[in-house]
Write a structure and sequence with these properties.
The complex is a heterodimer of chains A (553) and B (324). Chain A is mostly helical. Helix content of chain A is 66%, strand content 0%. The chains are: A mainly alpha (553), B alpha+beta (324).
């Protein structure tokens, strides 16, 4: 490693293998730990997030492995009940707050939003770095809680269990989630301001890539929803520490109040995870079918519709909580409505393929897989929104299967698709196509084998968060565990070849996919300032096929 | 390991076939759309796969009619799901008036099931076939949830309030009872069984415990009366005919509307009586002073159920007198 100096500029010709590596870009402009930890470059901050969320992903995945191993047999024989409860709690907490919520926005969004709108950076670069530090601080608190013995409340922190009865590290974990929330709020704020004020000349709202629209909608949810979660968690802490009666009926509180506050954030949070995923899919489908997106404005507005309606459906988590019958009906009705914009997107993506010129590069495999899995996840959401049916499947494995289809089948597939798609831009290297296709296929098979049997388990009545279960549920659980082992392999392969490609991958051109979009008009990897000249936008998004004039600026 | 692969739990209540019918409808709609989307994606992706000479066709990238079609068709279908689900839910939340009453108390990590006859079961519930059963439930500690998959019913059991659920069993047999709200370390051991019996057998089973009780009054009421005595409730609430007293008479109270100080009217159900014992000032009866102290901490959840049963029996006694 070259020691850092304030004016360190790497001499050209240092790496003679390729001219692309010797050209100055954001990765080689400075070296050293400080140049990363004190950077305000959105592209480098995206890498900080990528590394941190990957660590959390494999930690959360490790917990999932233990959960699936325990559930191979009906008896609770691998770990103690206390341990099992901590495993599913920490799996949920880490995967949601430290992986899924930041995944696409903080990595791909951070990297791409300025590039896609022709800006040099986000509106508040130092705030962007601060967001990462806040995220890391929250993550460290949560890791501390895990090392200290863990927490067993479920990621939902339901009261009065969390506020009065749990004997695990609730306060420490809650603090971790509370702190991380601010990272999310600041990122959302940064994105909104950037998208409003820093678009290149000619880049009107309806010329924006749909990725931007999706992130705009997501940012609204982050800003409006996250403070409510912070408040709810704070109140749990106050009740736990000072016995202030808010949620515990023994202290004069109302346990359902917590559920209202918690789901007011946590339902929209599902859309924080899935809206950016939808944004990624719109980019991938258009590029690999060489067509303009079908129904641009319908897809753009459906993101906004989802963000708005998403705030009005939290009560569908409480149909059997003793919430009033009529409240249940209103929430059911609104939940049905929120399904419509999602359906509209799926139909539009499908229609985009019609008479396109479709190629099957890895990102496209992920995009096609996303459409299938998201369709299943969305449709099973309707089962849960149908009141009389939800009574039976509520809090069973049906719910577990449903949200994994949305979050893993949807959000993670899109994240991986996006990561492969923009990998050449981020690193200047291509990933190995053969291995990548294989991994995508393994993930699709492994995913379905893991989670489809859980729909059946749920309808049979197997409750979620069970350490031990009656014998008749075993065969489906064994199928699920078998699938999970395939899924695990599917996640390790990209981890290996992506790291490998950093050094050995083929050199990427500025626009290896012949894609439209401003990010492809600048070299791979981009220079620190993104563009040598501020781009001028004269056309709609996705103006495929690419014209000769659309080369590197 | 059992190798048979069941897809449905047993159908053992009157609502089970109705819930399953809605499930079939949703499975059919989902299957239709999954097949539609998957085949379109696969068909388009293969038919229009990239080959060197061919470019994407310049087809329109907008079609408001098509957008309207795939907005309105799903909307229509979801509205069918909504109405169907809502009407089923409405029935599930309205226990029939003539239902057999059973009190359910959840605590970490067991179920206590109290029959009005005084019979008390732990993690086991015996019920007759062909008769609606209403469950009045509460928790002593955290939130639990009472779930019988074979009956397709579930309701959270929440501390500090009564929740209700009901079912009418149709098939004699033994079924799973699960707690479905995560409640701590032994959540997955908070399970039990529901035994559905032919009415005759149920009567035999009940009579097995009747010997210890006296007279025509059931044990729950008797214990409630003793508790009523012990707590000196009668000092203010004479359990006889109305007169001038510090507190309102409780005779004939149960199930009747009560005029409150603030002008509202409430029905004196289990939840109202429970609240009035634990937090007397919350719903003050019109014409009375807020003199009653709280009994929070002095009466257990089981004691509350006994008191409610006793007060309920006063109402029933009154009705019987009126009939005579």
């Amino acid at each position: 490693m070259i020691p850092h100096t304030s004016t360190a500029i790497v001499a050209a010709g240092e790496d003679v293998v390729s001219p692309a590596v010797s050209r100055e870009h954001y990765l080689n402009v400075r070296y050293g730990v400080r140049s990363w930890l004190l950077t305000t470059d959105h592209k480098r901050i995206a890498w900080l997030y990528l590394v941190s969320i990957s660590l959390f992903f494999f930690l959360g995945g490790g917990f999932a492995v233990l959960i699936r191993l325990e559930l191979m047999t009906p008896a609770g024989d691998l770990v103690l009940a206390e341990t099992y409860n901590k495993l599913f709690t920490m799996h949920g907490l880490i995967m949601i707050f430290f992986f899924l919520v930041p995944s696409i926005p903080a990595v791909l969004g951070n990297f791409l939003i300025p590039l896609m709108i022709g800006a040099r950076d986000l509106a508040f670069p130092r705030l962007n770095l601060a967001s990462w530090y806040i995220y890391t601080a929250g993550g460290l608190f949560t890791l501390w809680a895990i090392v200290a013995g863990g927490v067993d409340t479920g990621w939902t922190f339901y009261t009065p269990y969390s506020s009065t009865y749990a004997n695990s590290h609730v306060i420490l974990t809650a603090l971790g989630v509370f702190i991380t929330g601010f990272s999310s709020i600041l990122t959302g704020l940064n994105f909104i301001v950037t998208i409003h004020t820093m678009r290149a000349p000619g880049l009107t709202w309806f010329r924006l890539p749909l990725f931007i629209w999706a992130h705009y909608a997501t940012s609204l949810i982050m800003i409006l929803g996250t403070p409510v979660l912070a408040m709810a968690i704070l109140l749990v802490g106050l009740e736990r520490l000072f016995k202030i009666g808010i949620f515990d009926p023994a202290l004069g509180g109302d346990p359902l109040l917590f559920q209202h506050l918690f789901w007011f954030y946590s339902h929209p949070a599902v859309y924080i995870m899935v809206l950016p995923a939808m944004g990624v899919i719109s980019e991938l489908i258009t590029c690999f079918s060489r067509k303009r997106i079908f129904g641009y404005s319908f897809i753009a507005f459906s993101s906004v519709a989802i963000a708005v309606l998403g705030f009005l459906v939290w009560g569908h988590h409480m149909f059997v909580s003793s919430q009033s019958v009529y409240a249940g009906m209103i929430f059911s009705f609104l939940s049905m409505l929120v399904a419509i914009p999602s359906a509209v997107k799926v139909f539009n993506w499908t229609a985009t393929l019609y008479r396109g010129s479709v190629s099957y590069h890895t990102p496209m495999l992920y995009a096609l897989g996303f459409i299938g899995l998201f369709t299943i996840g969305g449709l099973t959401g309707l089962f849960l929104a149908s009141l009389g049916l939800d009574v039976h499947v509520h809090d069973t494995y049906f719910v577990v299967a449903h949200f994994h289809y949305i979050m893993v089948g949807g959000a993670i597939m899109a994240y991986l698709g996006g990561l492969h798609f923009w990998w050449p831009k981020m690193t200047g290297r291509m990933y190995p196509e053969g291995w990548a296709r294989l991994a995508a296929l393994i993930l699709f098979v492994g995913f379905n084998l893991t989670f489809f049997p859980q729909f059946v388990l749920g309808y049979l009545g197997m409750p979620r968060r069970y350490h031990a279960y009656p014998e008749e549920f075993q065969i489906l659980n064994v199928m699920s565990t078998a699938g999970a082992s395939i899924l695990g392999v599917g996640y390790l392969i990209p981890m290996i070849y992506l790291v490998w490609s950093l050094r050995y991958g083929a050199i990427a051109t500025a626009n290896p996919w012949q894609a439209t979009g401003l990010e492809w008009t600048t070299p791979s990897p981009p220079p620190t300032n993104n563009f040598s000249r501020t781009p001028l936008v004269t056309r709609e998004a996705y103006a495929y096929p690419l014209q000769e004039a659309d080369g590197v600026v | 390991m059992r190798y048979n692969l069941p897809l449905f739990p047993p159908q053992a209540s009157t609502v089970a076939p109705q819930v399953d019918a809605l499930y079939y409808f949703l499975v059919a709609v989902s299957a239709f759309f999954i097949v539609l989307i998957f085949s379109l994606v696969i068909y388009f992706a293969t038919k229009y796969r990239r080959s060197a000479p061919r470019r994407a066709a310049a087809v329109p990238h907008d079609n408001p009619r098509l957008e309207l079609l795939w907005t309105l068709v799903p909307l229509g279908l979801t509205m069918v799901m909504f109405s169907w689900g809502a009407s089923l839910y409405f029935d599930l939340r309205q226990p029939p008036a003539d239902a057999l009453e059973i009190y359910v108390l959840g605590k970490q990590w067991m179920w206590i099931l109290q029959h009005p006859s005084g019979k008390r079961e732990i993690n086991e519930l015996h019920v007759p076939r062909g008769r609606p059963v209403k469950l009045t439930m509460t928790s002593e500690d955290v939130i639990h949830s009472f779930f019988i998959p074979a009956f397709r019913i579930k309701m959270d059991v929440v501390p500090g309030r009564y929740t209700t659920a009901w079912f009418e069993a149709t098939q004699p047999g033994e079924y799973h009872l699960f707690c479905t709200e995560y409640c701590g370390t032994k959540h997955s051991e908070m399970i039990g069984r529901v035994v559905v019996m032919e009415p005759v057998h149920y009567q035999h089973w009940l009579d097995g415990s009747r010997a210890s009780t006296t007279g025509s009054r059931s044990s729950l009421e008797v214990r409630g009366a003793a508790l009523f005595e012990e707590l000196r409730c009668a000092t203010c609430h004479k359990a006889t005919l109305p007169g001038v007293m510090l507190g309102p008479s409780l005779v004939g109270l149960f199930g009747r509307p009560v005029q409150l100080q603030n002008g509202e009217t409430v029905i004196a159900d289990e939840a109202y009586i429970r609240e009035s014992i634990l937090n007397p000032a919350a719903k003050l009866v019109a014409g009375y002073q807020p003199l009653m102290p709280t009994y929070r901490g002095q009466v257990s959840e089981e004691g509350l159920v006994q008191l409610i049963s006793y007060i309920r029996s006063l109402g029933e006694a009154n009705e019987m007198r009126a009939e005579r």
